[in-house]
């Protein structure tokens, strides 16, 4: 609980993607909390700063890497004025994930120099906008590890699987005509609707939590602006989330995913895939994962395994064969108006991290 004043100051920093100065302020704030005596490697890509902190002069292969993101999604002015309500700390980023980040930073500060193996602290500022300029950029620069703990919220449970994502566009083309003479035209919107119907027949809208591939129709557009005209073009944007076991997506190239959707669509509809991001799965029987579960149970928590439907930076490690899990404090309201962290989980989280790091030694 000694971290509360620091957490409230960090929550007051509006570290959103469109405010580069505040991203740097948040990063420097956490680095100041870690303090001197460590090597700090600084990175920057796409205007997003990040840092890697470790003992010693030369970057090692890390036995354990603690990963935290300091950026948040946009919010109102009120959400950047944190407040307490009993055991709740309310504010943008309280649950996701500035409080966990400060716990991780303090655990690293207090244990790194006495652990008999290399440990690092990875601080990034772009997770909420894709993670490509933070975690992925550092991995591209040669950062390696055996096991990674990402401090996203989990209420001391262990997230061992999360979904991948694909951004897909369906394009329909037709022929313009006066709407009173439909037979002279070819309606692109009608084609697109049929294509979307075919996709949703293969991937129905989820009405409850299901561990399967889902497709969200995020936007539909046409260049046609006239009511009395047959539209000649239409586009639908699809957000696809898929689990590791779906081989139609996992390990596939954008061209292969495009071909998969094209096979579902009627003639006259083409498919473009902007990107395919991998899912994430840790070794469920791995000794480090089991050790982290034991550490959580020693604090009175279940340490149960969870699956995450959203994508996380853990996917970049999975892509490189590195085991990564999500393990953080409790709370609720992620990205919502009343986001909060559960303060009763803070000390157990800290003790569990320390016990895990000491236990695997």
Write up what this structure looks like:
The chain is an alpha+beta fold and about 350 residues long. The protein folds into 2 domains: about 240 residues, Zn peptidases (Aminopeptidase, 3-Layer(aba) Sandwich), CATH 3.40.630.10; about 110 residues, Alpha-Beta Plaits (2-Layer Sandwich), CATH 3.30.70. The protein contains 9 helices and 19 strands. The strands form 5 sheets. Strands 1-2-6-3-7-17 form a 6-stranded mixed sheet. Strands 4-5-19-18 form a 4-stranded antiparallel sheet. Helix 1 packs across helix 3, helix 3 packs across helix 9 and helix 7 crosses helix 9. The chain is elongated, with a radius of gyration of 23 Å. The model has no long low-confidence stretch (mean pLDDT about 95).
Order of helices and strands: HHEEEEEHEHEEEEHEEEHEEHEHEEEH
Assembly form of the protein: single chain
Mean pLDDT: 96
| CATH level 3 topology of the largest domain | Aminopeptidase
CATH superfamily of the largest domain: Zn peptidases
Question: Approximately what portion of the residues adopt beta-strand conformation?
Answer: 25-35%
The number of E-state strands comes to 19
Q: How big is the Rg?
A: 23 Å
Largest sheet: 6 strands, mixed
| Share in helix | 25-40%
| Uncertain residue ranges | none
Estimate nothing, just give the exact number of structural domains. Answer: 2
| CATH architectural type of the largest domain | 3-Layer(aba) Sandwich
CATH class descriptor of the largest domain: Alpha Beta
Distance between the terminal alpha carbons, to the nearest Å? 27 Å
């Amino acid at each position: 609980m000694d971290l509360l004043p620091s957490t409230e100051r960090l929550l007051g920093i509006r570290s959103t993607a469109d405010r580069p100065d505040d991203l740097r302020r948040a990063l420097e704030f956490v680095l100041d909390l870690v303090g001197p005596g460590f090597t700090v490697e600084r990175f920057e890509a796409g205007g997003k700063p990040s840092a890697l902190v470790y003992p010693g002069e030369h970057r090692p292969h890390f036995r354990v890497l603690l990963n935290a993101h300091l950026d948040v999604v946009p919010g109102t002015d009120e959400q950047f004025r944190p407040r307490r309500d009993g055991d709740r700390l309310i504010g943008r980023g309280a649950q996701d994930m500035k409080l966990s980040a400060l716990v991780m930073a303090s655990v690293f500060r207090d244990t790194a120099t006495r652990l008999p193996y290399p440990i690092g602290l990875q601080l990034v500022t772009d997770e909420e906008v894709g993670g490509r300029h933070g975690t992925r950029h550092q991995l591209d620069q040669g950062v390696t590890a055996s096991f990674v703990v990402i401090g996203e919220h989990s209420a001391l449970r262990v997230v061992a699987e999360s979904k991948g994502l694909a951004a897909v566009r369906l394009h329909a083309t037709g022929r313009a005509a006066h709407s009173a003479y439909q037979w002279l035209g070819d309606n692109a919107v009608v084609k697109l609707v049929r294509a979307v119907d075919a996709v949703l027949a293969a991937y129905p809208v989820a009405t409850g939590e299901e561990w399967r591939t889902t497709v969200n129709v995020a936007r539909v557009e046409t260049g046609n602006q006239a009511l009395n005209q047959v539209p000649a073009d239409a586009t639908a944007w699809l957000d696809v989330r898929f689990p590791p076991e779906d081989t139609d997506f996992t390990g596939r190239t954008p061209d292969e995913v495009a071909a998969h959707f094209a096979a579902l669509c009627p003639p006259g509809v083409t498919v473009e895939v902007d990107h395919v991001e991998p899912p994430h799965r840790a070794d469920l029987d791995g000794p480090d994962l089991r050790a982290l579960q034991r550490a959580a149970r020693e604090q009175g928590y279940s340490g149960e395994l969870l699956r995450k439907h959203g994508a996380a930076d853990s996917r970049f490690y999975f892509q490189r064969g590195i085991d990564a899990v999500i393990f953080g404090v409790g709370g609720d309201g992620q990205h919502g108006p009343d986001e909060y962290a559960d303060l009763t989980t803070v000390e157990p989280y800290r003790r569990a991290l320390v016990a895990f790091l000491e236990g695997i030694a």
